Amino acid sequence: MTSAHHLVLQYRWKVVYVEGKPHLLYYGVRNPPLHREVLLPLSKSLARVLESKGMMENSDVHEIKDLVIRKVLVPPEEKRSAKTPQTMQTCTNCVVNDYVVPGLEFDDHGVCALCQCYEKAEPGGYSAFPKVTEEELRSMAGKTSGSRFDAMVLYTGGKDSSFMLWLLARKLGLRVLAAFWDMPYCTGAAYTNIDRARQTMPEVEFVRWALPWNTLRKGMLAKWRSHGWPCMCPSPAFALFYPMAARLRIPHVFLGIEDVQAAVLDHVVGPASNAAAPLTPREQTLRFLGIRALPGSQKQPLRWPDEMTNYHAAVRDAMPEVFHELADLVQLAGKDTSMHIPLVARLATNESYGTWKNSQEIIQREMGWMPPEGQNNLLHTSCRLEPVKDYLQFQRFKAMRTVFMPQSMVELGAAVAFGLTPRSEALIASQELGYWQTPQELAGLARDLGIDARAVEDSSDELRHSMAEWAGLSS
Questions:
Q1: What distance in Å separates the CA atoms of residue 268 and residue 24, rounded to the nearest whole number?
Q2: CB atoms inside a 10 Å sphere around CB 205
Q3: What is the pLDDT of residues 406-448, one digit of tens each?
Q4: Looking at residue 61, which CATH number applies to its domain?
C-alpha cells in the first residue's frame, strides 16, 4: 500500500457530519456494486486530517487501508479532476457525461455507472410509484361506481401528459378529467396544445386552475432560497386537484411521467432489495401525498430520496395555505381505512409508449400536438423554466451542495438506455439543456422575483450558492 503520507481524498468525496459524527459522502455515481457505498463512517482523527489536508498518522493505518481498498483514498496521480466540455467523458451507451454529472464513473468499456445499474436491475424490482397495466384500466372503463370519471390526468400540454390523456381516454376508453395547473411559465406551445386537445378530444372534461401571482412569487422565492432552485411542479397541482379527485370519487390520478423520470430512484438510489413487506397501492399513495402535504422537518441531504423529501417540504413550507386541504385529507384517510382515496399511479410507460417518436406521431395525428418552436429535446416541453432548472441544479451539484444530480441529463440518458430514443438524437437534444451556458430565461425570472447581483451577494442561503456564477461571486 502507498504510504499514508502520500494519499489524498479522491475527487467528489467530502467530509460531512451526521448527528455529530464524521462521515465521507460521495457526490456522484460509482460503478456498481459500489454505487450504494456513498456514505462511509469516519474516525474523528482522520476527519480532522482530511479537513485540514494535514499529514495522516500511522495510527490510522487500518482505517486508511480500508479506504484505499474502497478507492476513496488514492495516490495523488490517481485523483480525478473536474472536467470541462472539452475534456469530459461521455457514456458509450447513453449520453450522460462527467462534466454535467461530476463524479460519474465508467467501466472499462466506457459505459457509465447509471447504465450499469439499469442493466443489472432485477425485473419487477422496487418502484417508487404504484403501477397499473393497460389491461387493468381497460377492464374498468365506464364501470366506476359512484363517479362519472375513471381517471384524472394532471395535464400540462406537454408530450408525456398529452400521450397519457390520449391513451387513457381514446385508446382505453376511460372517462377522464384532465386537470391543468396554469402556472405563469408554461410554454406557448403548452397552451396551444391544451386548446387543441379540447377541440380534438370532445369526450374529455377539462378543468383549469391558476393561483395568484403574489402567492406564486412569494413561494418561488422562498423555495429558491431554501432549496437552490425555484421550481415547484408538480406539488401544487396535487394540492389543488387531488382533493377534487377525492370528492368526485375518481379511482386513479395519473402523474403523466415516464419510467425514465423515476429511473434513478427505482434502479440506482432506491432500496437495495424488496426484503421488507411491500406497501399496498393505498399505502404508497398516502406516503406519496404525505411527503408533499404533511409538516415534517427537513432531512440532512445525504441521499437522493432525502433531497426529494426536502424539495416537497420546501414547496409546502413556502405556500402552506395551498396545502391545508390536502393535508387534512391525508390525515383523515390514514385514520379511516374505509375512506375512498384516488390511487396515485403510473403506467408501465416504456411498454405503452414504444418510443418517443411513436408517441409524438400519435399525439400529433390525434390531437394536433406540437413541441415548442425550435426545440428538439422532447423530455420537457411544457415549461419555459426547464433550462433554468437545469442550470441551477448543475451549479449546486457541481459545488457539492446537493446529491441531487442534474435531472434532465440523467433522464435523457435513461431514455436512451431504455430504448425510447436513439443515442444520436439524444446527443443533439442534450445540447439544448441548460448546462452549457447561462440560460436567457434566468435573467427574466430573476427580475420577476426581485433578484439582482446585490441580492445574491447579500444572501447566505442556497440562492447564493446556485447563483454565485451568474452574479460573478465565489460560491
A1: 19
A2: 16
A3: 999 999 999 999 898 999 999 999 999 999 999 999 999 999 9
A4: 3.90.930
